[in-house]
Amino acid sequence: MMDNGILKVTLSNPDGLVTAIQFNGVHNLLDTQNEENNRGYWDINWNMPGYPDNYDRLVGTKFRVIMENEDQVELSFTTTWKPSTDDSALPLNVDKRFIMLSNCSGFYAYGIFEREEGWPGAVVNQARIAFKLQKNLFGYMALSDDRQRVMPSPEDREMGQPLAYKEAVLLKSPTNSDLEGEVDDKYQYSIENKDNRVHGWISSDPPVGFWMITPSNEFRTAGPLKQDLTSHVGPITLSMFVSTHYAGEVVGMRFQDGEPWKKVFGPVLVYLNSVSAGDIPLNLWEDAKQQMSIEVESWPYDFPHSEDFHSSNQRGTVRGQLVVHDRYISAENSSAKHAYVGLAAPGEIGSWQTENKAYQFWTESDNKGYFSIEHVRAGDYNLHASVPGVIGDYKLDVNVTITPGCEIELGSLVYEPPRDGPTLWEIGVPDRTAKEFYVPDPDPMLINPLYINHTDKFRQYGLWERYSDLYKDGDLVYIVGVDDYRKDWFFAHVTRNLGNKTYVATTWQILFELDIVKQNSIYVLRLALASATDSELQVRLNDEFANPALFSTGRIGKDNAIARHGIHGLYRLYSIEIPSSQLNDGSNIIFLRQSRGQSPFQGVMYDYIRLEGPSDSNSFDKH
Known about the structure:
By secondary structure, the protein is mainly β. 5% of the residues lie in helices and 42% in strands. Strands 6-7-8-9-23-18-17-11-12 form a 9-stranded antiparallel beta sheet, with helices on one face. Strands 4, 5, 10, 20, 21 and 22 form a 6-stranded antiparallel beta sheet that branches.
């Protein structure tokens, strides 16, 4: 038990399961109707290569008090893999740590995961902390200033009508009649890592808040734009460290036979707050945000008693400026405004979005492209960047080596995005999402009112079905120079619903004019995808049935962002050469066929499409 006079946390010994949290006169904020092993816990989804998935609660077998004094207590619950007896268990040592400080209205949790050299291979697709709260207390959920709402109960979901998959339910006769006819789906409450700092629940009687605060993203996988779960009906609050959501198994941790590894996940803060009976319960959210800011400013913490968690003096800083040079836009460099700039394990261009075993450190540049990446653990990294409004990914062509206490000044870095010739036309905005395209209103019978008149309108359920409603007589045709991608380009290239659970592939057309084709030249089509799910995108030019196609992606994608209301998944960029002999003076048509049509969730989301003319003297570099 940990008790600082503000709250009392009970943990099972040696399991390390959180069985009770006593706070503000409430004997237990966790759901006492659940068994003790189903209230507050770490869990993991894993498998041996080639074998089915396993689900394990990470239950400790040894308990230790790491340190205890009047200011702090730190507890450890460990489980150790033994090759001779645990051939069917995950080859991983786990040390779950819990910390309570004397003056803190909450407690910290972190985990040290380790594999030793020579251990057999394994795959870990999910690792997280979960808390299940009292249903009769917590009914209001808050994820951000504009994503808050009264939530249904688990019983409401059980009485509801299942929709296209088990996570989505249409509420029927809920206990709160105001929720009648609404859709509930936990994936509607996903958030990108960069914005996932604080989320949780509010009880109005007594006025108490339960919050998950994540002060750093360094231990999360797949970079700042990776989306993941937060809180949802239960009431449940999660801290997701590893998952394949919105990306697929490519972001799961795959360990080879013999591969050693160690990583610290966390600490995260479980923060509890309260207000007086006459105060406004929503002030709990404001207080939680203030506490989140305090935690972010305090990172890296100085109180964890593990040599594996590196303190501030064991870390370094990298600074620089990123500018963009696009020779067909301007002779001058432009500032990489509000770019995401980060350090990740060495790899290929863009590999950060699937990197999953090491640490990543990201920041956002200012209006002039200046950036400072602080508190970086020692090691070798690649510097990556993604610039809003600019196609592609930047990667510095040398490694960045961080040593304790270093301050590295990289100076001015120039990103030259992919470019072969002048822009003849373009569709969309290169921002790695499909958010700028036409997102339809949902079926009026399948609405989550949170997203009515909301910037995240794409999180409404069932938008994939609206394509067949809107394009009854044929697939999408877009006329360059006439149509507006904000109104005339559907946000997802999905299959067509013929009824009776029958779906077919769809072919979109881009109609454009070229006054005069420059002969014996190469034109280039830049095709950036924001997401793909079990798709094959084929590109043809001026012949819808040409075989073979001019280009095919092959079978790609397990993002599942269409079904899970994400406006993006993994980013993919293709550069397709078009011989001038295949173009016409005058009218031309590009056919985009998503050729797989067995499911409503197969499809791609486009980020940006651009046709470039041949390289010529229009480049500013040649003037």
